[in-house]
Amino acid sequence: MAFILSEEQAEFRDTLRRFFSETTPSDDVRRLMDTAEGYDASVWSTMAEELGLQGVPFDERHGGQGFGLDELCIVAGELGRALVPCPYFASVVLAGGVLKHVASEAQREALLPRIASGAVATLALVEPGQGRWDATSIRMETPPEADDGRLTGIKDVVLDGTTAEIILVVTRSPGSRGWEGLSVHWLEAPIEGMQPKALQPMDATRKLARLHFNGARSQVLGQPGEAGPALQVALDEALVALCAEMVGGMEFVHESAVDYARSRHQFGRPIGSFQAIKHKCADVQIDLEGARAAICAARDAAGSDEFPLLASIAKAHCSDAYYRATQENVQIHGGVGFTWEYDAHLYLRRAKSSQQLLGDADQHRERIARTLEAHA
Amino acid sequence: MQRSDTPEQAEFRTEVREWLEAHAEPRKGEGDWSNGPREHTPEAEAAYFERCREWQRTRFDGGFACITWPEKYGGRGGTPVQEIIYGQEEAHFDVTAGFLPASISLVGPALMRHGSVEQCKRYLRPLMRGEETWCQLFSEPDAGSDLAAVRTRAERDGDEFVVNGQKLWTTSAQHCDYGILLARTNAEAPKHAGITFLLVDMKIPGIEVRPLITMKGDRHFNEVFFTDVRVDVANVCGEIDRGWAVAKTTLANESMMIGTGTQTQGTTASLVQYAMDHGRWEDPLVRQRVAEAYVQERLLGFLRDRLQEAVLEGRMPDVDGSVMKILWSESRTLRAEVGLDIQGTDGLLAGDDAFDHAYWQQLVLDRSMGSVGGGTLEVHRNGIGERVLGLAREPRADRDVAFRDLKTSTEG
Ligand SMILES: Cc1cc2nc3c(=O)[nH]c(=O)nc-3n(C[C@H](O)[C@H](O)[C@H](O)COP(=O)(O)OP(=O)(O)OC[C@H]3O[C@@H](n4cnc5c(N)ncnc54)[C@H](O)[C@@H]3O)c2cc1C
Hints:
heterodimer; A: Butyryl-CoA Dehydrogenase, subunit A, domain 3; B: alpha+beta; Butyryl-CoA Dehydrogenase, subunit A, domain 2; 3 domains; 8 strands; globular; binds flavin-adenine dinucleotide
């Protein structure tokens, strides 16, 4: 994120950029993609212990650094830029965000310090056959109180679902709809009655799993049946962090395409002097400036009434913009862009997976339409 | 905007608001007079131009025209911050000075930066007050994007230049008192090095203005013919043969202004009500398109806010003028198309038979205003590629060649 960082924030970003380019160069990204757990445990613990990254958005009393969405976006942006395979988004952004907003103080005190020091956590929300990152996808029923929170059902495309030890599961009370009647449960894996199954992801830098629940015992976070509004706030903050991550990747592919357009020669001139190429680069630049501005606007509005709308605007735009940028990057590189060896496809895959994560552009445009309608 | 005003800014805002409330009506919507003339008759257009001119005078007399211009030239000697605050407040009112602010900010800086003391004394105040209006006599049949290819000749005869040639696309020339003219004074030099920037009285003999009717049906711009028009050498702005430097001063102001202009003319959010009124709001495709238009409009707004915020906080703006111009052009086109498509077959109608007196039809037909006027989208994309991203320019056939030896469209 290039827009107005304070001096400390810029320094923080530079430190992270150096750290990830040293610890997770492209070769390591590829190596980790092929492992089951999908991340480097020693880098992950350095991130927690030396840089304190997993604690960035949490209060100091919860073992965190007490920073806000701005700093979280800086971390996300650098992770997206270097395509670092690790459970940061699942653990800190999603699970951490949900805990912050939904859990009771005692639960936060118990769980957030663990996440801050590197325990892997995740959020299980989407269900098979629904395919949408929103409340309509949640069908799993909240078990009756007498039943020790025993969960039954299947959760799908759970980020880092096979490595997470803290798992948060969203359920709904029978008969409820939309964002009403939702509960968030917490359980510790491995646990009897819950079987994780690794899925093959199109974007192998983000590990996905299907979780089969067959009576696993859980505890409810906060008040049962009342998680909806707080969950929405957490997901909207996660949206903005995700957009920042996408913009990090977008900046990288844009720089890479422009560099190539400057140095690659055909017909005795740099290919960037051909307008078909130059205008692609210009269009990505326009998209990128819009994306940065959208994130800044959303970030600055955190906590206000307009925040959900601005988060959706950012996601609707970034989803399309990042994907376009990765496709143009492949195209500008010609044949070499199509090779397995070249990193362009890794970003293309990431852009595709990010489009769906937390809702695609159509879904967010529909949410924008609903917001506009409410004000018409 | 998120940031809140400093005490001085708040005070200025209150002053502006009170003044506007005393002198103008609040904006209501698609039917506001400030959206443009209702009828495309020369009389209605002239009346609209007069009304814009009147508002410019009111504004000047209130101390709110040319806010950032130095007091010694008759400006307010204010800050860009005040200019922005004024623009934000004026946007809530049914007023406009139309074409004038754009023309004033093309002509004024050129005069202040390159003009003589006498020229500044003579022209600036009436310019700012809208008493004398100015058109931009730059483009020609053979010189559009390639503006430095102008071939209108100005030949020296004693203390005068004799001008012959043709200008094209000159906005509002039929209403204007003066013009800034780019003319070729040396055809032996390479094309950028033989141009002179002249200040021309549109009433002098030999100038013929022929309105051109646009696809919208209005007389937005004109052809202007020059036949043995005599212009005093004292009316050269800058130096003879060095007019390109002056032209660049004017062009630098143009794209930023177009992108940041306060010509909001209604907002996309109003499309929702519009779709509801037409029974189309439940259509998911309509909802998608309205939302997309809304996203575009907000992105442009965020960038505009960033730019203004940078100014308000005394930083260098980090938003590029060409990016703004392209987003502005594309977002207003999208909004226009969605607005018209919502009407379905009713969108086939025009004039009094159409909704809102064909406001949406006219907006669709107005695309070139943003996509061609003030530099085409393609030329601005070249600018982003070259200026912002450092990509190589195209090989050129017109470097270091005497202007008279260059190929033109007619020679193929
Ligand atoms: C509403 C309106 C108001 C105007 N008002 C004024 C005015 O008041 N005064 C004035 O002097 N002029 C005015 N103009 C003229 C305007 O500046 C020119 O029309 C514009 O610069 C394009 O020039 P052209 O029309 O000759 O098109 P051309 O330059 O011939 O362009 C034709 C096509 O070729 C493309 N093209 C040209 N060069 C390149 C290139 N290097 N790379 C890629 N594509 C290229 C263009 O993008 C365009 O699509 C106005 C135009 C409009 C539409």
